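Design a sequence for this backbone.
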């Protein structure tokens, strides 16, 4: 640095003596620099070098001068000269790193170089060298540690993703070979004796063919504890490293290792606690000294793999325990089923006999005793059903039958079951089906009803005043399904926070006093939880003591793509303006949403005074309300008082009034008719019933005083409500019915439907019970579920027919979730006479009763079932009755005998034709049979012949032969019915 042109900093005294750049100063810097500095000529010779460079390369400085770079870089002299020329040409080069050999070992130096000129002519290259060996080694060590960390991570991930221990060990062997670049890896496992290592098929070979001999020898070698490299690791339970296995006499495979060129070897154990379960061995082509860091990593890896083995062992033990628990649950369910059968058999006898006794002439006290016995027996059966249902769920034997059904109607049916009890307690029942929620879904209606029944029954049990409601809404999921959310809310006693978490446990009540006061098994909520989970949903609750509870559950359900079944209001009703009067917010909301769905105009108020004001304002405004829906139980002014006030006002008297009540009394209907009400409906009011009531009331408004009061019993679309079955109209079938159904909720729905049709109903939980009950009690018809445990409906029917022989044949109506032709054939082939599809509808059940139960004789005692018609169609019996009146008994008896004889002959000929493959003759015979059956009104036979014609036309020989069996069974059933209906005895037709 020259002083000329140099600028002195202000306030800094001038340095004395002045320093000037000179050769002496340059020499001082050169000598005392900490970095090595050296000057190379263009020929690559060291022209100058400082002491720092001598210390870096480990050669005295005097010896360096005059050397060529080839001394420090053997074999790379030409390369170094090319680099010198590049530096001279470009002016500078660097930094770059260079590995050199020194007397103390290899070193890495970092170089910066620039060209040196003399009078503008390049004469050499000045180099500045720094020893970076320590830094490079630190970086290499860090990279090595990182690679070992990655190794542990990769093996951990592979072990977690592996489906078996073998798969995890294979991944570990491959990962270790990749990280260490060792060529061979293999796994030995400890055998069952715990003293020997056995070879496995788990290998990693870098060059398979080259090391094949070593592999073959290893596959044939078992090692005892302490023998060979893996055996020593096994014995010491720690890693073992041998620098050259070919020189280790304890290595049994040393000879073959030498042949294939393997030298270094190491092994480490897989530990579960202190137990060695496997040993991994690895071999390299190089002679390598032990690496403490690698040994430590492999030791950790062995522990890590051991944890995976331990988890798999635990999983196997858990699976075995689960299987044992399932088997125990299965055995428990079997024991419970057998035990319950033994209990149910006498219980059914008690219920059946008390039913027969109740049908007789009893004084009021005796009837009370009988009903008490019957109701107590039914309560015990309900308890048995709960225990059985829970045991079936625990044993994994619960069957879910998804079918298309109307979800809104299913919820309404549940509330209908409790209408009598709610009436007795004075509690309102309400159901809200949110607007836009699909009605037709695919699911198991019986199980969904069962959950709702448990929740509603539970809510009603703990609610003494107020309301119990069901609320259903759905969120679309975009895959043709929706997530349905069900809420059952009550205004009952509520549940304390500390008790809510335990409410879904079996045999659990909020506290002991709850069980004593309200009763119950504590199984309902536990069953509901498991049912919801089996159907893919969740269940929970929210509650506050003294303010009621809300139990909710969600279910993902496919939406039926067929048109919705929601009732539509006729166009003439869509112009109506209706006023809703109810003090309950939820009831007003439900009714308002219903009217909105039907495109009707509705307004809602909460009291009688508000209603009168709204009606008068609407009248004055020129838009009067056409109809008012009034709640009966309201404070200050109830529905009856409000109705009378409306009818007493000349301006409002034309308003059509519908009254809704949760608890009517005897004589209420008559009083309401006198007060001017058009309809008197008992809550809960289903949407379809309300729409029918509105339509009927509006259509009958012109009749005035001659109009008949509308009740839900007078509307044909709905089975009605109330705790007790209404009296049966003249002409309705009255029968003793045996209902065979395993689902408790389906039992209740079916029983309610049948009782409201005037039937006396007993229930069997499976086919076995049904068979035994038919042996001991007289029934007129059996409604038989097809899918039941122990003995299903098909098997039970075949057993019933076997026991009947040629005697009296009881009609059996199948209850099936599937209404396909194949299911119909299966039912008929088993000996059933008819079928009703689930979910049961009143019209279908009523039709089956009319077909298979004859009417009581004139003057017969009410409630006494008539003798069954055997297997004869009702239309056939009606035809014969008409013919008897017109042509006489003798002519009809001859006709029947001829029909039976000729039909038997044609069925035999039909079998023969099908056996010969003569489709033409078979078709003619089938057509003839169809015609004769249709003429007499034997519709079941005619329908079977029509199906048989189709099978013959399609060339389905096997199906046609099976259908002939069905036809023959129908004919024999028909023959038994005709035998009972004919005055003359008939010889049984043979095949």
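Sequence:
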């Amino acid at each position: 640095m020259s002083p000329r042109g140099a600028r002195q900093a202000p306030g800094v005294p001038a340095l004395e003596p002045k320093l000037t750049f000179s050769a002496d100063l340059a020499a001082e810097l050169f000598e005392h620099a900490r970095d090595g500095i050296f000057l190379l000529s263009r020929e690559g010779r060291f022209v100058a070098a400082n002491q720092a460079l001598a210390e870096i390369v480990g050669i005295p400085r005097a010896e360096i001068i005059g050397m060529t770079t080839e001394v420090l870089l053997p074999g790379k002299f030409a390369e170094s000269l090319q680099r010198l020329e590049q530096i001279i040409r470009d002016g500078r080069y660097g930094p770059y790193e260079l590995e050199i050999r020194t007397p103390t070992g290899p070193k890495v130096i970092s170089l910066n170089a620039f060209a040196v000129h003399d009078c503008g002519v390049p004469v050499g290259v000045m180099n500045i060298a720094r020893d970076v060996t320590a830094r490079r080694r630190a970086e290499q060590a860090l990279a090595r540690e990182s690679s070992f960390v990655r190794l542990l991570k990769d093996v951990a991930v592979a072990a977690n993703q592996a489906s078996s221990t073998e798969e995890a060990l294979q991944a570990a062997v491959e990962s270790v070979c990749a990280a260490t670049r060792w060529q061979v890896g293999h796994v030995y496992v400890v055998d069952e004796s715990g003293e020997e290592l056995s070879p496995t098929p788990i290998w990693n070979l870098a060059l398979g063919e080259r090391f094949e001999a070593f592999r073959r020898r290893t596959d044939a070698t078992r090692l005892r504890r302490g023998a060979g490299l893996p055996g020593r690791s096994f014995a010491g339970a720690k890693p073992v490293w041998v620098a050259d296995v070919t020189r280790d006499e304890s290595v049994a495979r040393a000879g073959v290792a030498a042949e294939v060129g393997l030298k270094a070897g190491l092994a480490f154990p897989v530990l579960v606690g202190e137990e060695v379960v496997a040993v991994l061995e690895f071999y390299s082509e190089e002679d390598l000294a032990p690496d403490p860091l690698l040994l430590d990593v492999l030791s950790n890896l062995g522990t890590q793999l051991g944890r995976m083995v331990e988890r798999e062992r635990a999983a196997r033990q858990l699976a075995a325990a689960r299987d044992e628990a399932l088997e125990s649950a299965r055995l428990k369910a079997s024991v419970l089923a057998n035990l319950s059968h033994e209990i149910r058999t006498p219980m059914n006898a008690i219920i059946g006999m008390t039913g027969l006794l109740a049908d007789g002439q009893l004084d009021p006290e005796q009837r009370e005793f009988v009903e008490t016995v019957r109701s107590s027996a039914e309560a015990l059966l309900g308890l048995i059903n709960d225990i059985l249902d829970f045991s079936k769920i625990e044993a994994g034997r619960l069957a879910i039958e998804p079918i298309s059904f109307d979800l809104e109607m299913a919820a309404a049916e549940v509330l209908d079951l409790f209408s009598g009890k709610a009436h007795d307690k004075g509690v309102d029942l309400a159901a809200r089906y949110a607007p836009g929620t699909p009605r037709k879904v695919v699911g198991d209606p019986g199980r969904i009803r069962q959950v709702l029944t448990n929740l509603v029954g539970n809510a009603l049990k703990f609610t003494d005043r107020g309301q119990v409601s069901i609320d259903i809404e759905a969120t679309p999921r975009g895959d043709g399904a929706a997530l349905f959310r069900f809420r059952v809310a009550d205004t009952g006693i509520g549940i304390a926070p500390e008790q809510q978490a335990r409410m879904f446990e079996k045999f659990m009540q909020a506290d002991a006093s709850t069980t004593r006061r309200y009763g119950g098994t504590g199984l309902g909520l536990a069953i509901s939880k498991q049912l919801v989970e089996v159907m893919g949903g969740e269940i929970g609750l929210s509650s506050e003591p003294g303010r009621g509870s809300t139990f909710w559950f969600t279910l993902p359900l496919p939406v039926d793509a067929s048109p919705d079944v929601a009732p539509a209001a006729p166009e003439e009703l869509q112009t109506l303006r209706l006023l809703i009067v109810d003090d309950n917010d939820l009831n007003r909301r439900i009714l308002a949403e219903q009217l909105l769905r039907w495109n009707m105009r509705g307004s809602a108020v909460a009291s009688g005074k508000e209603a009168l004001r709204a009606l008068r304002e609407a009248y004055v405004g020129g838009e009067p309300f056409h109809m008012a829906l009034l709640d009966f139980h309201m404070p200050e002014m109830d529905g009856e008082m409000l109705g009378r006030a409306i009818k007493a006002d000349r301006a409002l008297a034309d308003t059509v009034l519908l009254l809704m009540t949760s608890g009517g009394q005897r004589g209420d209907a008559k009083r309401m008719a006198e007060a001017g009400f058009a309809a008197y409906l008992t809550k809960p009011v289903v949407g379809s019933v309300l729409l029918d009531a509105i339509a009927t009331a509006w259509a009958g408004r012109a009749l005035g005083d001659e109009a008949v009061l509308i009740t839900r019993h007078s509307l044909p679309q709905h089975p009605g409500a109330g705790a007790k079955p209404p009296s049966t109209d003249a002409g309705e079938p009255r029968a003793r019915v045996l209902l065979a159904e395993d689902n408790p909720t389906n039992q209740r729905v079916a029983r309610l439907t049948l009782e409201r049709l005037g039937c006396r109903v007993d229930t069997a939980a499976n086919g076995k019970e049904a068979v035994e009950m038919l042996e001991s009690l007289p029934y007129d018809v059996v409604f038989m579920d097809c899918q039941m445990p122990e003995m299903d409906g098909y098997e039970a029917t075949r057993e019933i027919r076997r026991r009947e022989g040629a005697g009296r044949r009881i009609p059996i109506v199948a209850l099936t979730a599937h209404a396909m032709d194949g299911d119909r054939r299966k039912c008929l082939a088993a000996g059933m006479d008819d079928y009703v599809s689930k979910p049961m509808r009143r019209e279908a059940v009523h039709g089956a009763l009319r077909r298979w139960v004859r009417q009581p004789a004139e003057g017969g005692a009410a409630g006494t079932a008539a003798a069954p018609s055997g297997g004869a169609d009702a239309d056939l019996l009606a035809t014969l009755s008409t013919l008897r009146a017109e042509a006489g008994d003798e002519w009809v008896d001859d006709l029947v005998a001829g029909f039976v004889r000729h039909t038997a002959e044609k069925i035999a000929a039909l079998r023969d034709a099908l056996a010969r493959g003569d489709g033409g003759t078979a078709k003619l015979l089938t057509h003839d049979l169809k015609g004769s059956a249709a003429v007499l009104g034997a519709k079941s036979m005619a329908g079977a012949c029509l199906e048989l014609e189709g099978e013959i036309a399609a060339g389905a020989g096997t199906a046609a032969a099976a259908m002939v069996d069905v036809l023959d069974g129908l004919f024999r059933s028909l023959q038994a019915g005709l035998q009972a209906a004919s005055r003359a005895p008939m010889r049984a037709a043979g095949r």
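The first helix runs from residue 23 to 32.
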